[in-house]
Amino acid sequence: MTISTSTRPRSAPALTREVAPGVHRLSHAYVNCYLIEDGDDLTIVDAALPATWRPLLAALGALGRRPSDVRALVLTHAHFDHLGFARRVSTEWGVPVLAHPAETYIAHHPYQYAHEAPRALYPIQHPRGIPILTSMARAGAFSVRGIDDLRFFSPGDVLDVPGNPVAVYSPGHTFGHCALHLPDRDVLLSGDALVTLDPYTGETGPRIVCGAATADSVQALGSLGALADTDAAIVLPGHGEPWRGGIRTAVQAALAAGVS
């Protein structure tokens, strides 16, 4: 299949090469996953939605890569929209899937996760989110299969995977959420600890995700300090466009945006 190279947020699959040094973004149904290159090897960060499987294969081909080049899948957290093809990567490619231990239950049960606010009201209160949520549903948001075979890392670990990201513990969105810092590339993959598009409200700009999908917003806001401490120049979020103004300005904006 053909994938677009557009950098705009969109429903259709889009590959952005070198969104940061040696990092490529695959965006589909308003969800981002990332491919980190390290020599001949790759790490995938987050597993998007089930229908992103075919765009993933196309992206590998476009980059001159094969599934055998993928050495690890690292989850910033295990919500269904970051777990979509994790089971297939594990079972079909034999690739290890890594996450913080506190993500184990959600990884087993992708639809049983803590959130502060009733989700049913958001499409009524925030109609700009409807096209985003519809696109996610079409990409398999309601058919994500859980995964049992996780390998664990701890906060502050330098992961023994291509790119050697550092796990930045940033709980609140989920209780085991970890952003991934690439110090040698001045990049932070923020997962959903800080996004530039809230899928439920359609709001853009740096922020935490609204209470429809966040376990503890107060904790999530508090975790922004750990992200700021990385001093990363480029922020690559789980939803929305890259932020190139530095993590500290992104955190300031997210704190100002508050809780939705």
Notes on the structure:
The chain is an alpha/beta fold and 260 residues long. The chain has a single domain (14-257), classed as Metallo-beta-lactamase, Chain A (4-Layer Sandwich), CATH 3.60.15.10. Helices cover 24% and strands 24% of the residues. The chain has helices at 53-62, 80-83, 86-93, 104-108, 122-125, 130-138, 217-228, 247-257, and strands at 14-20, 23-28, 31-38, 41-45, 70-74, 97-99, 150-152, 166-169, 178-182, 187-191, 195-197, 204-207, 234-237. It has a 7-stranded mixed β-sheet. Strands 8-9-10-13 form a 4-stranded mixed β-sheet, covered by helices on one side. A two-stranded antiparallel ribbon has the order 11-12. A hairpin with a 2-residue loop joins strand 3 and strand 4. The model is unreliable at 5-9 (pLDDT under 50).
Q: How many structural domains can be distinguished in the coordinates?
A: 1
Fraction in helix: 10-25%
Level-1 CATH class name: Alpha Beta
**Rough outline:** globular
Alpha plus pi helix count: 8
What is the topology?
Elements: E1 14-20, E2 23-28, E3 31-38, E4 41-45, H1 53-62, E5 70-74, H2 80-83, H3 86-93, E6 97-99, H4 104-108, H5 122-125, H6 130-138, E7 150-152, E8 166-169, E9 178-182, E10 187-191, E11 195-197, E12 204-207, H7 217-228, E13 234-237, H8 247-257
Parallel strand pairs: 4-5, 5-6, 6-7, 10-13
Antiparallel strand pairs: 1-2, 2-3, 3-4, 8-9, 9-10, 11-12
What are the salient characteristics of this protein?
globular, 260 residues, Metallo-beta-lactamase, Chain A, 8 helices, 7-stranded mixed β-sheet, single chain, 13 strands, alpha/beta
